[in-house]
Amino acid sequence: MEFKYQIGTKAFFGEACIGKNKDELRKYGSKAFIVSGKSSAKASGALKDVIEALEESGIEYEVYDKVENNPTLENVKEGGAAAKNFGADMIIGIGGGSPLDAAKAVAVLAVNDIDPVELYKNSFANKPLPILAVPTTAGTGSEVTPYSILTRKDLQTKMSFGNEDTFPKAAFLDARYTESMNYDTTVDTAIDALSHAVEGYLSKRSTPVSDLFAVEAIDLFGQCIKPLQDKEINLEIREKLLYASMLGGMVISHTGTTIVHGMGYSLTYFKDIPHGRANGLLMKEYFNYNYEAAREKIDKVLGLMKVESIERFGEIMNGLLRGNYKFMEEELVQYASLAMKQRSASFNIKTVTEADLLGIMKRSLM
Fold this sequence. Notes:
2 domains
């Protein structure tokens, strides 16, 4: 056994965790730059709670609520400039994966005079500002990962950067903030969390420690399948999904993702299919492709979810996603080529070629 393990984030989990732990905010400065999208931070109640905690702590703040659904380099450049002009000494990301990922980029760009494409060098002259994260969805786990996934228009895909300095210093996870999500978003983000746990579990980079978190997250998702199917999603279920999402983030902090994410990025970039939904469309054939190389682990995944077969898993995904997506072969050829350029392809437990990825996508999407 030989492995490394590090988590750079202090997590506060539970109802009203921001108010109960507002003293934590003072540790990171006196001027907070809040990064969010247009609506989720407000609708969830998270923005209100953060602002109340900042005001009670005597911390100045400014809100940047212009994060796009899939933030681009141009988007985070604007945010970084605004944070610098404000004189921020901490960044607070509130929202789903997009605002949290954007917050990490803004934290770097606020103190480094670099072109945003240089984020991918993963080495910065000045350490990023401290990042605090408040998730309002239960899917990305970005609150406990160093990764920032941004849209690269120049490459027609999404790519991630991140190093040990882009781990959020603190994360505040309150499942009440996820109650404002509609049903489809709840399902899409839950499947994203599942894909993190599963891909990390089936990664060449998995470790005994990351596997512990992955198994727990997959088991939690299994407990939530029927409530998701029946649309009976109470606060207890949302709390389980948020916990599973956090665990999934802890998994991929060490393993990275694999081919599901690499293939799914094109579905989001070209077809505007939500990220978690894109992953769900591909997971059945991902299991089939990897089965001979990871039979024991995949059987365990199915067992944890109390699903009798890969075929049945595919039926469950189809039922939850309720989509009828069809693609032309020439589109999938392009997507397979782009997926092979993702570093994550090399982490898959079974070696893949571009032809393999095209086959998975054709069986999933045609």
